[in-house]
């Protein structure tokens, strides 16, 4: 298994997401066909913080889940059989939030392949999101590679 780190330019060559929905800044490590460690800087200038929540901004949980999905997307689209596909979200399970993610934080997303139905190109990944070294969220995302 090959270990690799990826810059944002390399990430953009793998996944179709673009600003403002690109929520992965760098990949620290990807073990082909197995796992990924990625990072996202929660930029305080994001428009979402004007309304979520005024005076007490926090990254919405749906953004955290999207970070899980995008890290998983990079892992899967890096595999030859899924390269160039569009990753469609088809399931979110067992999501739990344990710690707030605030503007200015940099989160680390760890994701690994949990289950793959190769004949249907459907993959479930287990993800953990860390903030300041503490577990902030966990969940499973299921993606259909089309």
List keywords for this structure.
146 residues; alpha+beta; Thiol Ester Dehydrase, Chain A; 7-stranded antiparallel sheet; 2 helices; 7 strands; globular
Topology:
Blueprint: E1 3-6, H1 8-14, E2 26-31, E3 35-41, H2 61-77, E4 87-97, E5 106-117, E6 122-131, E7 134-145
Antiparallel strand pairs: 1-2, 2-3, 3-5, 4-7, 5-6, 6-7
Provide structural commentary.
With 146 residues, the protein is α+β, with helices and mostly antiparallel strands. The protein has one domain: Hotdog Thioesterase (Thiol Ester Dehydrase, Chain A), CATH 3.10.129.10. The chain has a 7-stranded antiparallel beta sheet. A hairpin with a 4-residue loop joins strand 5 and strand 6. One of its GO terms (molecular function) is (3R)-hydroxyacyl-[acyl-carrier-protein] dehydratase activity.
Quickly name the level 1 CATH class: Alpha Beta
Write down the overall geometry.
globular
Strand order of the largest sheet: 1-2-3-5-6-7-4
Question: The CATH topology is what?
Answer: Thiol Ester Dehydrase, Chain A
- The low-confidence runs, each spanning 5 or more residues with pLDDT under 50, are none
CATH architecture label name: Roll
State the distance separating the first and last CA atoms. Answer: 25 Å
Indicate the mean pLDDT: 96
What is the number of E strands? 7
CATH superfamily (homologous) name: Hotdog Thioesterase
Largest sheet: 7 strands, antiparallel
GO molecular function: (3R)-hydroxyacyl-[acyl-carrier-protein] dehydratase activity
InterPro entries: FabA_FabZ (IPR013114), HotDog_dom_sf (IPR029069)
Family: Belongs to the thioester dehydratase family. FabZ subfamily.
Pfam families: FabA (PF07977)
């Amino acid at each position: 298994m090959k270990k690799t780190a990826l810059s944002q330019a390399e990430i953009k060559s793998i996944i179709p997401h673009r600003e403002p929905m690109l929520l992965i800044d760098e990949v620290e490590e990807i073990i082909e066909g197995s796992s990924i460690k990625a990072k996202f800087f929660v930029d305080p200038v994001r428009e979402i913080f004007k309304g979520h929540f005024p005076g007490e901004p926090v990254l919405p949980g749906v953004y955290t889940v999207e970070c899980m999905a995008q890290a998983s997307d990079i892992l899967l689209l890096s595999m030859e059989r899924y390269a160039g596909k569009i990753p469609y979200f088809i399931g979110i399970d067992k999501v739990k939030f344990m710690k707030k993610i605030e503007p200015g934080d940099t989160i680390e997303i760890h994701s690994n392949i949990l289950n793959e139905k190769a004949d249907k190109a459907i993959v479930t990944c287990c993800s953990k999101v860390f903030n300041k070294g503490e577990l902030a969220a966990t969940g499973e995302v299921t993606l259909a590679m089309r």
